[in-house]
Amino acid sequence: MTSSPLPLTATQDEASSIAERIAQLEASMLPIRREIDRLKHLASLIPANIYIMDFKQLNAVYSNRELSALFDYTAEELRRMGTALVPTLVHPDDLTRYSAHLERLTQIEDGEVLKLDYRIRLRSGEYRWLRTFEQVFSRNPDRSVHQILGVGIDLTEERQAEVERAYLREELLHAQTAALQEIGTPLVPITSGVIAMPLIGSIDEQRAARILDVLLDGIAERRARMALLDVTGAKDVDARLAATILKVARAASLLGAEVVVTGIQPEMARILVQEGANLGQLKACATLQEGITLALSRAAG
């Protein structure tokens, strides 16, 4: 026994009802589509690199025009990279930090933002520095991370400027150090066989070694019999300065020269005694002028 076919009018009524429901659904979807299009257009106009990534697969779900322009890859090309996206674009030396960053993303709350600086590879093969701010965009039913939303800033010029500034600071420091060494250890010829070295400022280990080298070289070069070491302008009168004076005096005596220390203050005298200076061998004058007068009188005699 066969069933009777539905009347044509009933079939037409059902088709008309379905078409009406479809039209209603399309009409209800129209504002949503317009809103989606508006948001896409807005994202494409924002002067920042915006993207959405599938957290499990680490592939691009969405990337705006700015990001595509930076990478020199279209959004479709980025999507087609699939799971090869991260190994292809992230610098090999930054992959470990990137993995640690992903692990931290699994532990953050909604609305919390994590920052990471790393290098990304462009189509040309050039690497550029990118600073990203990422947060959870959506979660799976079990509350695990489904997608992440990120905003990236190109830091390449800023990084290069930092490197250049650091280089210039290092060069300036070297130049200043060299200048201070030259200015801080001047050797002044007084008369035949007599030289003077005024010590100004602080004396660290490096400068103490420089003082010894310059003075001994000057004694040997000028065949000096007397060297005046003036400490009037020295700062931080301490055991280091006293040790420097004693070392210079002993070394000069080995070259046949006498060191006369001028400008010693009471505090320096106490430190020299504490350091075990042989005051019988260490000649001292109250001022540099007195030391010069002594040197000239000996030269005349």
UniProtKB/TrEMBL annotation:
Domain STAS: start-end pairs: 184-295
A Pfam family of this chain: PAS_3
Naturally occurring in which organism (per UniProt): Chondromyces crocatus
Domain (PAC) ranges: 114-167
Name the record gives this protein: Anti-anti-sigma factor
Keywords: Phosphoprotein
PROSITE patterns hit by this protein: PAC, PAS, STAS
SMART domains in the cross-refs: PAC
Domain of life: Bacteria
Residue stretches making up the PAS domain: 35-109
Coiled coil: none
